[in-house]
Amino acid sequence: MSSFLQSFLDPKKSWLAAMHMKSLTKRLRKYGLRYDDLYDPYYDLDIKEALNRLPREIVDARNQRLKRAIDLSMKHEYLPENLQQMQTPFRSYLQEMLALVKKENAEREALPLYQRTIP
Amino acid sequence: MANKQLLSLARRSHKPPSSFTVVRSSSSAAEEFIKPPPPTAMIYDRIAHSLKSKLQKLEKPDIRFLKYGSPHPTQSSHTHILSLPETKITTLPNGLRVATESTSNSRTATVGLWIDAGSRFESDETNGTAHFLERMIFKGTEKRRSEEEIENMGGHLNGYTCREETAYYAKVMGNGVLKAVDILADMLQNSKLEEGCISRERDAILREVQAGEHTEEAVFDHLHSTAFQYSPLGRSIHGAVANIKTISTEHLHHYIHTHYTTPRMVLAASGAVKHDQIVEKANKLFTKLSSDSTTAKEPATFTGSEVRIINDYVPLAKFAIAFEATSSTDPDSIALMVMREMLGSWNKNAGGGKHMGSELAQRVSINGIAESMMAFSTNYKDTGLFGVYAVAKPDCLGDLSFAIMSAITKLAYRVSEDDVIRARNQLKSSLMLHTDGTSPVAEDIGRQLLTYGRRIPIAELFARIDAVDPSTIKRVANRYFYDRDIAISAIGPIKELPDYNWFRRRTYWNRY
Question: Boundaries of each Peptidase M16 C-terminal domain copy (chain B) (predicted)?
C-alpha cells in the first residue's frame, strides 16, 4: 500500500509528481531557498527540536538563505540569474533528523506517564 | 602603485580557493554551462552529508554490539548447555530410590536423604512432630554422635523440614561419601531419642517460635494457615505451642515408623560420587525402615479468607496476597513460574533500581511505595499458592495494593511478547544459576524425584518454558486469577490496607 503511494509521489516514476517538483524548483530557485527551509519551527515543535540538534553551520546557512529570501521579497526582486542557476532546492538537510525526532516522540508516547522523563 | 599591486597579489594568494570564485570565473565564460555546485562544495553541505550517513547508520544498528545483550528481549538458543551429566536412578528392592549425578571434575560431594514427609502428614494432635524429629535426629544415635563424626571429616550436616518434605544431607569431601551414607543411615534408623535431649530441644524450639513473630516466615505461616484452613497444609511447621510441650519419645518413634518409609525416600548424591558404590552401600544399610508405601494424605482445600494482625509498634507493614495455584505436576505450573518472573521482585538494595524489567517492580520503585516486593509461586502435591509479598511503610499501602492487583489482573488481559520473552529468559537463567554446586544439585534431584517421580532433563524443561507464549499466559491467568477468591495475610501497622472486598473486586476488570 505504501509502496503504491510512493510510486504515485515519486518524481522519477510519476509524471505528475515530476511536474510538481519542477514547478516547486522554479519557485524556490527564484528566491534562493531550499525545500527544507520552508519547514517552520513555530508550526511544529518536532521541527524546532530537529533544528536544535542540527550542527551550527547548517542552521546558519538556513537562516542566511531565509534572510536573503525575505530581503528579495521585500524589494520585490528575484535572485540574480546566475545565482539562480546554482541553486539546489531539493538538497535536504532536515528530513532524517526530523524522522528521528518523530520516532523518538512516538516511542515516548508509548511509555506510561511516569516513565516519560528521566527519573 | 606597484606596492598596492604586490599587496593585492599576496592577499589573493593567501585566500583559500573557494569554489565560488572558481565557478564565478567559469560562469562568466559561458552562461549556459552553469551548474549547481556539488554537495562537497560548501561546508554546510558537507556536514549535512556526513550527518545523513550517521543518522542512516542508526536505522541499522551494528549487530556485533547486540550479540550478547540488547534492549529488546530476544529468544536465544541454549543447546550448547543442555547436555548435562545424566542422573542415574536405581530403585532398591525395598522401595528406596538412589539417584546420583556425578560430575567428574568436582572433589566434593553432597549426599542426602529426601523424604516425602512433612508437617502436612500430621494430624492436629501431632502437629509439630516432623520438625521436632528433625531436630532430635541430629542429636545422636546409639553408636555415635553424628554431627561430631561428620565434622571430623570436615563436612557439614544439615537438614530442613517443609510442609511436604524433609531432608537430611551432608556436604563432604569426595573420599567421605560412603562414610556419610553410613552416618545418615544410622541417624535415621538408630536414633536414640532420649528424654533429656527432648526437653532441652523443646525449650529451644519454643524460644524460636517466640522470636519469629514478625518475620517474613510469620506472614507466610499465617497465609498458609488461613488459605488452607481446616486442612493439613494449613498447619505450621513448628506446631502449636501446646503440642510442642507434650511431644514425647513414643510420638517421635511412631512418626518414624509410619512416615519414614523407604518408598517415600530418595537417597540423592551429586559431585564426586559413583552410582554403583552408593547403591551397594544403601542396599546393605537401609534395612530397618518399613517398606510401607501408603502415604496418608488428606486433600487440601483453599478458602478465600484473610488474617490481619494489627501492631502499630513495628515500623513496617508486611502483607501477602495469594491466589490458589495448581499442583507441581500440572503443566500449567511452568506457566505460573514464568508469570512469577513477569511480576518479578524488587527491594531497595536491588542493583537495577528503577529500571528493572517487570512493570510492577518499576511502578513500585518509581513511586516509592514499598520497601521490598516479591512475587511467589509455590506448588504442593495437589494445590499451590501464587501471589505477591510486600513490605511497606504504613502510609502507602493503598497505592501499593492497587499496583499489585492491577499488575496481576493485567496478566489476564494484556501481555506483551517482550515481557514474556524476558520472563522466560530470566526463569531459565535463574534455574540454571541456582543449581550451581553439589548441594543445590542434590536437592534438585531429591525434590524432583519426590514431586515428579523422575528428574526432568534440562532440555525438556527449557522446551516447556519456551512453549509459554502470551496466549498461554492469558489463558492460565484467566484460569487462576480472573474473579477468583484470594487469601490475604498481613501483620504490622496495616490500618490503611484495603479490606478483603476491595481486593476481591480487583481480581477482574470491567473495562473489557
Answer: 247-427
Poorest-pLDDT segment among B202-206, B240-244, B488-492: B240-244
Strand B305-310: give its sheet, edge to edge: B305-310, B486-492, B317-325, B384-392, B372-379, B345-347
CB contact A97 to B (< 8 Å): yes
Check: CB of residue B452 under 8 Å from CB of residue B478.
Answer: no
Place of cell 498458609: B224
- Backbone CA torsion sign across B240, B246, B250, B253: positive
Using the structure block, give the residue that is written with the C-alpha cell 511431644: B247
> Which three-class secondary structure state does DSSP give residue B266?
strand
Closest-CA distance, A96 to chain B, in angstroms, reads: 7
The complex's ipTM works out to 0.89
Residues in chain B: 512
Contact B453, B116 (CB under 8 A): no
Residue-level pLDDT at A118: 62
Candidate from A54, A86, A92 with C-beta closest to B23: A86
A36 near A92, Cβ under 8 Å?
Answer: yes
- pLDDT > 90? residue B211: no
3-state secondary structure of B49: helix
- Report the alpha-carbon distance of residue B467 to residue B462 in Å, rounded: 9
Per residue in B107-142, pLDDT tens?
899 999 999 888 888 888 888 888 888 888 887 777
Residues of chain B with C-beta less than 8 angstroms from the C-beta of A37: none
B280 is catalytic: no
pLDDT tens digits along A37-93: 999 999 999 999 999 999 999 999 999 999 999 999 999 999 999 999 999 999 999
Give the mean pLDDT of chain A: 91
Q: Are B364 and B403 in contact (CB under 8 A)?
A: yes
Computed over every residue of chain B, the mean pLDDT equals 86
Least confident of B86-100, B180-194, B300-314: B180-194
Q: What's the CA gap between A66 and A61, in Å, rounded?
A: 9
Place of cell 518536532: A46
Domains of chain B, earliest start first = 15-66 (no CATH), 82-285 (3.30.830.10), 305-505 (3.30.830.10)
Give contacts of B37 with chain A, Cβ < 8 Å. 86, 88
| A–B interface: beta-carbon pairs under 8 A | 53
Q: Rounded to 5, what percent of chain B is helix, strand, coil?
A: 50, 15, 35
- CA B448, B452, B457: angle at the middle one, nearest 5? 65
Active-site residue (options: B165, B201, B306, B371):
B201
pTM: 0.77
